[in-house]
From TrEMBL:
Residues 30-113 form the Cyclic nucleotide-binding domain. The lineage of its organism: Bacteria, Pseudomonadati, Bacteroidota, Sphingobacteriia, Sphingobacteriales. Gene3D superfamilies: Jelly Rolls (2.60.120.10). InterPro entries: cNMP-bd_dom, cNMP-bd_dom_sf, RmlC-like_jellyroll. This is Crp/Fnr family transcriptional regulator.
Amino acid sequence: MKEFINYILKFGNLNKQQADFLMSRAKTLELHKDEYFSEAGKIPRQVGFILEGVIRFCYYNNKGEEITHSFSEENHFVSDQQKFEAQVVASDYIQAVTNCRLLVFSKKDWDEIGNTIVGWEAIKVLIEKNCLLKTIERRSPLVSEDATTRYLSFIEQFPGLVNRIPLSHIASYLGITQQSLSRIRKNIR
């Protein structure tokens, strides 16, 4: 749990009492591979912090194809934040790609943290901005680069993920077929 507090401290200060209060509101959740943290069509009920494992965000396009649009790994938050805060129905699925262990906070506890810890809202805004910026930095090159360059960028951005997640998810994230990804991988070895 120390990883969680250290992550929070990158964005603001907490004294021991505040850190203890924050941890008192956290619960541990184990997700098995392919289980959902949050599902499209349902209201997101929790915010999580990944202690172990990899999570992906995906949706189904109008052709019924599954599209992966981002990944999160250890020491990152995971939530459909806007839908969670507004308590409205999500349009994305948040799914465990590997077995995962997370710290989770219910909406009630998350709100209580905000109402109790002075300066929490400022910390939360900085965390959200950081998460959004990372997502944009990772997605932007995917628009203009060829498939090989996108794959090489993926390896650079997610060095520990290539051997942890199915190629089908990587191909979906890169916007290519699994066969194309296999050819690219074969050609760069």
